[in-house]
Specification:
This protein is mainly α and 122 residues long. It has helices at residues 5-15, 19-26, 30-37, 48-57, 68-72, 75-78, 87-112. It is globular, with a radius of gyration of 16 Å.
Length: 122
């Protein structure tokens, strides 16, 4: 079984979130979030919908918790310890992270449909 408590806890710390806040935003009980954080609930035991909400709140995908390669490419982790972060800079990084994930999703759909996007030349 795969336990993701440490990764969830670290991500919450980066984003300045408490277990209460994550639980409230994910429409879950705080005890359920605490069980995940304290490695009492394995990833396989977390409802898929709940996991998608938790991932969204933490500005990542479920795969973030499964792959070191994805963690290495994560903007929020990669930009840590590069100067002073404040709430405003973290909000900007969260938005960039979300944009990159949305962009990758759209490009994947276009690729599956056989469509190709060509950026405009200026």
């Amino acid at each position: 079984m795969l336990y993701i408590g440490e990764d969830v806890k670290n991500r919450m710390n980066i984003l300045g979130l408490t277990a209460d806040e994550v639980a409230e935003k994910a429409f879950m009980e705080k005890e359920d979030i605490d069980a995940i954080i304290n490695n009492k609930t394995a990833l396989e035991q977390i409802d898929e919908f709940d996991m998608s909400l938790i991932s969204s709140i933490l500005h990542c995908k479920k795969e973030f918790f499964l792959s070191e390669d994805i963690k290495e490419k994560d903007l929020l982790l990669a930009s840590m310890n590069r100067g002073f972060d404040n709430e405003k800079s973290m909000n900007v990084k969260e938005k960039i992270q979300d944009f990159m994930a949305d962009y990758a999703f759209i490009m994947e759909i276009l690729s599956e449909e056989g469509m190709h996007y060509e950026s405009p030349s200026y």
